[in-house]
Amino acid sequence: MAQNSMAVHAEHQARFAALIEQNRRSMFRVARAILSCNADAEDAVSQATLNAWQAFGRLRDDRAATSWLLKITVNCARDQFRKGARVTYVEDLAPYAGEAEAPLISDLWEAVCRLPEDSRALVTLYYYNGLSINEVAHVLGIRTGTAKSRLARARGKLKNMLEEDAP
């Protein structure tokens, strides 16, 4: 009986690890869209991973796992944003640093980062993470119509920013 319980627990852990591995870049991207630096986004992703693990047994539909995980990440990033940024000197972290994510730098990404927080999260979830407008609305806790109109406004702002920045 104990071996059966251990096998179920190992399978549960493996499913969770696979879910995190499959979505870690998307989690980071959406957290970074909300927060102003990579370190804060990494902290939010870590907290989201912990929160997701604690709630993983209550996930009923594996097909909804990605949007469920991204919603947890958005909530953790927003909580971190409300707490305010903290200062950590990168030099102090060098001995503990792991392999870094590839930088998300481009003219378009820089323009996205200049959008208001709610627009950044929406654009990131829709364009960078490939969620449908219904999934984006669910993750952000807003109505589908609201998500559509905010996305249209964000596209307009991005277009204007990119045109202004063009040589």
Task: Give helix % range.
Answer: over 70%
Strand content: under 5%
Shape: elongated
Low-confidence stretches: 87-98, 100-105
Number of helices: 8
* Average residue pLDDT: 81
Measured distance between first and last alpha carbons: 70 Å
- The tally of beta strands, per DSSP, is 0
- Oligomer class: single chain
How would you summarize this macromolecular structure in one to three sentences?
By secondary structure, the chain is mostly helical. 74% of the residues lie in helices and 0% in strands.
Question: Can you walk through the features of this model?
Answer:
The chain is an all-alpha fold and 167 residues long. It is built from eight helices and no strands. It has helices spanning 2-34, 38-55, 65-83, 90-93, 107-113, 117-128, 133-140, 144-165.
Please tag this protein with its features.
mainly alpha; 167 residues
Describe the secondary structure blueprint for this structure:
Elements: H1 2-34, H2 38-55, H3 65-83, H4 90-93, H5 107-113, H6 117-128, H7 133-140, H8 144-165
Helix pairs in contact: 1-2, 1-3, 1-6, 2-3, 3-7, 6-7, 6-8, 7-8
